[in-house]
C-alpha cells in the first residue's frame, strides 16, 4: 500500500510551490483535492500553450494525481464549502498570504476547532513575525531576496536567476516534508498542528548552509565555498563534447592523476590531500580541464569509471528522453490523458517497496466538484443548489 | 512537542545529500545518530578551513542536532555494531551504493528481519534497475547528467553548474520527505519498508516538470519554459542597484504598467492577457527593464508594493545578516559551540506550532560513541572491548 494511502489533503495552492508539495503527496497515495478559484490555477495558462484551454503542459506535470473542485471563495457559501471539506480532511495546505487566509475563515485558528487532527500548512513568501510578512512573492522575488541571484553574480558577473523556479520547487519539497513530519507527530499525539513554511527563510537557509563559510566565525570571514564558486568549477570540454568529473577523496584524486597520465601530481603539495586541493582549487580544476581535452567523452567515461572516479556525460535536456538509464527505469512514460490525448508524463522518481498508487490524470478545472461534495456529506439538494453559484461545474471542453 | 520526537535515526550519510535529509529530521526532533567511518565524514575537511581539525563551517551547519559514533565497518565487530543499532531505530538512511551496502550486511533484506518496523532509505546516485546503478555520484555528476547544467547553457552559452550543490540539497529534502511519508504509512500498517531515492531520476524529474514544456506533446515540441529561459528574465537595474519584479497576473501587470507611467500598455495586444505576455515574453521583460531604470530601488519598492506588485531588492549574500526581516525573525543566531566557541548558526526556517526541539551542537567525531552503545544495550564490558577496536573513541581536541 502506498505510504500516504488514506490521507486526504485539501489543496488551495497554485502555480508551482504548493502544487509541487501536493504532487509528491499524490505520488505517495494521498487523496488530493485541488480547490481552484473560478479563474483557475494561474499555471493552467502560464504553463505554456496547451491542446485544450487551461491545460498547459506544466499544469499537467504538476497536477497529476489530483482532483479539482472550483469554489468561489468570495461568496459566503463558497467559504462554507471550503470549511466543511477542511473539517473532514487530514491536511490543509495553501500558499495564500496569512491575512487573506484569515479573512476567508481558513486560518489555523478557524479550522482547528472544527478538526483538531488537522495539519494546517501555510506556505508563505515571508514568515510571520518579520516585516516582510504578507508581502506578495513569486520564485523570482525569493531568488533575489535570499542571495540565490547574488550567488549567481559571483560566477556570471551580474545577479541572475537560476533557469528553474528552484525556490518554488525546494520550498514545495520542504512543505511536503514538514506536513508528513506533522502527520508522524499526530500519530503519536492524536493532534494536528499549524506549520508555517516561509520561502524566504527556507531559501536563505539553503544559501547560508552552503555559503556562510568563514562568515560562520565572524564578520571578517569570507562567504562562498570556493569549490563551488570558482569560475573553473564547471563541466569540462573533451575532444567531442562535455564531461563532468569530480574526484573529491584522495583515492579518487590519485586515481584521476593516474588516468590522465600525471601520476607525479599525487606527491605535489598543492594536490596531495583534501585540504591541499581545497586551498588550490583553481589550479586543481585547471589540471582537470587540461587533462581531459585529448579524448572523446565516451573514452573518458570508460577509463574513469574503471577507476571508480565519479564521471558522467553532460546530457542536453533533449537527451534525457533517450538516456539509456532513464529508458531502463521507465522514468518518462506515455500517458493517455482523458481530455488531452497522448502526452508524456513522469512516474514518481522515488520508489517505495510497499507500493505506489495508481494516479489519476491532471484534472480539468472543476471536473470533480459534485463528486467531492458528495464525499463530504453534502446532500443532492445542497449540491444542486451550490453548483449554480459558489461551486462551478466542470469547464466544458472547447 | 516536536513532530518527530521519539523517532530514532541511524544515519550513515556523508557530505551534503544525506546530512541535509537528517538535518531536517533533527530540526523536527528526531534523534539522529551519525555513524562515521574512522576517516570521518568527508565534509569535516572538505567544508572549509576550521578552527579545530575536522570541524569545517559547512560541517557545523549540516550536522547540528546530531550525535556521532565512529565505527570501522571494515571489521566484523563494526558491522555487528551497526546492525545492532539498526535493530533498535525507526529509520536507517545511507548514501552508500547498493552493492556496498549489501556487502556490509546493511541492506533492507538484511535489516528488515531484525526490525520489521524499520524504514530503510537508500539515497543513491542512480536507481536500481538502470544501467548507471552503482556508478559513483556527486552533486556535479548529477547536475551534468540530469540536464541542470544544460539548462544553464541556454542562458550562459556553455554548460555550467549552479553555484550550489543544489542536486544534493533537493535530493536530501526529498529523502526526508519520503522517510516521513513511510513513517506515516507505518503508523497505519505497523510495518516499515525500503525506500530508494535516486538523485538522477529525482533531478531529471525536477528538470522535466519545469522544462519538458511542448515536448510533452511529442518529439517535435520545443523544450524549455521561455519565461524562465529567456535571457531577459533576470533582475533589473534601477538607478542605484538591482530589483526583482514579477507581475504575472493581469491585475499585477496592469498595475505595473500604471506604476511605470505606461497605462496604455494594458490595451496593447502583446500584453493584455497572461497568454499574450507569455507569447511576447522578451518584449514584456524589455518593457519591465526600461521602465525601472529611472528611480532608486527603495523608491520602486514603495511604489510597487503599494500596488501589490511582487517586488524585492536583490540581497547580496553578505546582506542577509542585516536583512531587517531575517533580523526580525531571528533566522541567524549566535551559538556557543562546545568545542568551536562562538559561531553563527541557523534556526529551523519552518515553524511548527506544537514546538521545536533543543538541538545539540554539531558533534566532534565519535564523541557520543560510548553513550550510544550504552543506549542500545551494549554492556560496559562490550563497550570497553569495542572502544579499542571497531568503535573509535572521540577525536581529541588538538
CATH class of the largest domain in chain A: Alpha Beta
Shape of chain A: elongated
CATH fold descriptor of the largest domain in chain A = Rossmann fold
Can you tell me the CATH superfamily of the largest domain in chain A? Crotonobetainyl-coa:carnitine coa-transferase, domain 1
How would you portray this structure in words?
2 copies of one chain form a homodimer. With 398 residues, chain A is α/β, with parallel strands linked by helices. The longest helix of chain A is centred in the middle third of the chain and has 24 residues, at 166-189. The model of chain A has no long low-confidence stretch (mean pLDDT 96). In chain A, the strands form 3 sheets. A 7-stranded mixed beta sheet of chain A has the order 6-5-4-1-2-3-13, with helices on both faces. Helix content of chain A is 39%, strand content 15%. The first copy, chain A, folds into 2 domains: 8-206 and 328-392, Rossmann fold (3-Layer(aba) Sandwich), CATH 3.40.50.10540; 236-313, formyl-coa transferase, domain 3 (2-Layer Sandwich). In chain A, helix 1 (17-27) packs across helix 9. In chain A, strand 1, helix 1 and strand 2 (31-36) form a beta-alpha-beta unit. Chain A has 18 helices and 13 strands. The interface between A and B is large, with 156 and 156 residues. Strand 6 of chain A pairs antiparallel with strand 12 (351-352) of chain B.
Amino acid at each position: 500500500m502506498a505510504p500516504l494511502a488514506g490521507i486526504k489533503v485539501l489543496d488551495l495552492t497554485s502555480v508551482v510551490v504548493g502544487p509541487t508539495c501536493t504532487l509528491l503527496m499524490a505520488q505517495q497515495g494521498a487523496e488530493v483535492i485541488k480547490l481552484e478559484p473560478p479563474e483557475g490555477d494561474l499555471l493552467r495558462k502560464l504553463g505554456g500553450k496547451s491542446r485544450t484551454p487551461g491545460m498547459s503542459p506544466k499544469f499537467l506535470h504538476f497536477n497529476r494525481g489530483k482532483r479539482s473542485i472550483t469554489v468561489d471563495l468570495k461568496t459566503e457559501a463558497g467559504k462554507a464549502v471550503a470549511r466543511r471539506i477542511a473539517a473532514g480532511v487530514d491536511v490543509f495546505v495553501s500558499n495564500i498570504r496569512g491575512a487573506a487566509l484569515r479573512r476567508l475563515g481558513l486560518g489555523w485558528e478557524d479550522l482547528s476547532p472544527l478538526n483538531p487532527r488537522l495539519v494546517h500548512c501555510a506556505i508563505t513568501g515571508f514568515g510571520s513575525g518579520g516585516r516582510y510578512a504578507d508581502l506578495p512573492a513569486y520564485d523570482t522575488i525569493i531568488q533575489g531576496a535570499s542571495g540565490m541571484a547574488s550567488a549567481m553574480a559571483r560566477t556570471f558577473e551580474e545577479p541572475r536567476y537560476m533557469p528553474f523556479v528552484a525556490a518554488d520547487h525546494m520550498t514545495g519539497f520542504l512543505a511536503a516534508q514538514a506536513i508528513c513530519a506533522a502527520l508522524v507527530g499526530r500519530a503519536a499525539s492524536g493532534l494536528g498542528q499549524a506549520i508555517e513554511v516561509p520561502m524566504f527563510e527556507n531559501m536563505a537557509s539553503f544559501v547560508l548552509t552552503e555559503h556562510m563559510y568563514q562568515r560562520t566565525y565572524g564578520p571578517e570571514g569570507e562567504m562562498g565555498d570556493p569549490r563551488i564558486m570558482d569560475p573553473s568549477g564547471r563541466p569540462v570540454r573533451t575532444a567531442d563534447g562535455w564531461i563532468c568529473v569530480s574526484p573529491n577523496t584522495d583515492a579518487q584524486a590519485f586515481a584521476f592523476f593516474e588516468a590522465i597520465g600525471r601520476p607525479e601530481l599525487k606527491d605535489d603539495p598543492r594536490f596531495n590531500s583534501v585540504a591541499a586541493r581545497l586551498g588550490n582549487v583553481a589550479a586543481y580544476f585547471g589540471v582537470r580541464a587540461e587533462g581531459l581535452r585529448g579524448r572523446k567523452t565516451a573514452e573518458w567515461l570508460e577509463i574513469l569509471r574503471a577507476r571508480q572516479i565519479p564521471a558522467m556525460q553532460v546530457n542536453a535536456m533533449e537527451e534525457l528522453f533517450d538516456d539509456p538509464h532513464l529508458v531502463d527505469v521507465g522514468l518518462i512514460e506515455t500517458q493517455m490523458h482523458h481530455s488531452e490525448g497522448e502526452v508524456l508524463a513522469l512516474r514518481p522518481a522515488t520508489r517505495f517497496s510497499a507500493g505506489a498508487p495508481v494516479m489519476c490524470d491532471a484534472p480539468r478545472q472543476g471536473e470533480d466538484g459534485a463528486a467531492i461534495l458528495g464525499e463530504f456529506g453534502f446532500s443532492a439538494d445542497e449540491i444542486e443548489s451550490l453548483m449554480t453559484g459558489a461551486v462551478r461545474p466542470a469547464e466544458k471542453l472547447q
